[in-house]
Amino acid sequence: MTxxxxxxxxxxxxxxHRLARAQAEGRxxxxxxxLVRDGELVWTGSSGxxxxxxxxxxxxxRIGSITKTFVAVLVLRLRDEGRLDxxxxxxxxxxGTSVGDRTVLQLLSHTAGIASETPSPWWERTDGAVRPAxxxxxxPEPGRLLAGRHFHYSNAGFAVLGALVERLRGRPFGEVLAxxxxxxxxxxxxxxMPVAPHAQGFAVHPWADLLLPEPAHDAGLMAPAGQLWSTxxxxxxxxxxxxxxxxxxxxxxxxxxxxxxxARTDPEAGGYGLGLQASGGKHGLVGHGxxxxxxxxxxxxxxxxxxxxxxxxxxTSGPDVGALVEDLFEAVVSAEPRxxxxxxxxxxxxxxxVALTGPWYWGAAPFAIKLHADRYLELVTLGNRGRESRFxxxxxxxxxxxxxxxxxxxxxxxxxxxGAVTHLDLASFVLTREPYAPADVVPGGVGPTGxxxxxxx
Length: 457
Prior knowledge:
The chain has helices at about 10-25, 65-80, 90-95, 105-110, 135-140, 155-170, 175-185, 225, 230-245, 250-260, 320-335, 350-355, and strands at about 30-35, 40-50, 60, 200-205, 210-215, 230, 265, 270, 275-280, 285-290, 295-300, 305-315, 360, 365-370, 375-380, 390-395, 400, 410-415, 420-425, 430. It is α+β, with helices and mostly antiparallel strands. Helix 1 (about 10-25) runs antiparallel to helix 11 (about 320-335) and helix 2 crosses helix 7. The longest helix has 18 residues, at about 10-25.
């Protein structure tokens, strides 16, 4: 955590006012929200009541499908430990299911093409005991679409991921979650079942100001799809982790991987990554929403601004949590734009790496190599367009692309017998210090007369 500056009083009032509007216009018994800036919870607000009093940052609400983001963290931990690969078929680790030919990646990104929900009865309003086995969750024919072809949101798919975590860890899902995520991050008020003080979930009559209490059953095998309860204080800590990483739980590189879309959800709304949805829009938001009978929830990050917002309402429908979050972000960003991080020189740099910086040419196209902290290199174009990437150093002296066209590809510095650098090999492409030179390292060679002055040359 950093010492984030407090919000201006005018900003706080704007946030309080927008939250009050959301509660009144959405006809929610209560609404709570919190803002994280640079890793710290700098504002909380509430409107309405829980048990006759204003809810606090420690009042539990059901967070629904935000649970899926927690599940994705557990799966990425297994991947980072080498226990599985995202390209593995489910059958490799969880034999005997009817979706064994789907991959872990497809389940995480909702591209497995399997059923959205369980067979009847409606799982969100029935006890999980009616579905004691994965076969009861998936049904006899869970396939709906061609695997890998379409985004098709699947609650049942995350039930399978929860079972996979249990299989590889040898413990119940809730125990694994507590030990590997909740306890290290200090999320002491995030639980599978409600613990007082908590909000009661309600349905609000569409045409009269009347309430109907909603049930809250233990979802059993479907718990990984949407069971968790949490608080503004706890989910704000989780949001800070999703922004900055925590090596006790998951690295920032893996979290960035989770944020990156795998499948487009629709033409307007960005795409879905690994347990996180990139909704795009003005602030480049990424996060997850949640709904269960009696509750609506939202968790959204604006990584470039160092901001995160969480919001809960105890109403089945009515409040527009997404619109509220967008407006709260806008209120903060417009009133208190983030200061750029101060430039500072590198504490040290290897002369051999500094010598690699500057202009390079892919054929006749101009590029440049920049050196960053921790021996990271960046390829940038000096022309009107070109393929740019950042590269992570490897123990063998090469670099691996982190993003862009060259993600996962290898950058190698090639030297002659005397140790002098002759060129860079990037996924077989040759980059030289002069356009198409020297001829002996460029496949196909260079014409015997070199560069000419007219097409006839």
